Amino acid sequence: MKIIEINNADNLSQEISELAKAWTATAEFWPLDSCQNTMRASPTFFSAVAKDRGQSIGWYLATVNGDDCELLFIYSHENSRGQGVGKALLTDLVSRVKSSDAISAIVLEVRQSNTRAIDLYERAGFSKIMVRPHYYSNGENAFVYKLNIETP
User: Fold this and answer.
1) CATH class of 2-148
2) pLDDT tens-digit profile of 16-32?
3) Residues 116, 127, 138, CA angle at the centre, nearest 5°?
């Protein structure tokens, strides 16, 4: 597996076109054009795609607001889940954020029912800092997690 940085919103669709078809079929996931608009509107963002044998199998998007980095999502294709794609993408993000002197924390929201993602975040050192009741359209709660970034 190879992690490739995406530093331009216009390159996004060519890097993840097949992957986008899979995730847009998932209820309540962002359309590709919304992701591209977020990238264009954010002066600083982090994004990367995971590839295996030339196929895009996962990607993430995070924006920087002040001294926090907000992980908007990590997505791995359903056929690649449980194979370390999410961990590799999260590790890439944390590494890139640590190399930036201006960011003190990574924050994210995750569905209460997404136990696989919660386990990934907790193993990576994230702590649950709050609950957003009835956050999602189906009434499900969101957990807010945070990872403080230590500066050398």
Assistant:
1) alpha beta
2) 766 666 665 565 567 77
3) 50
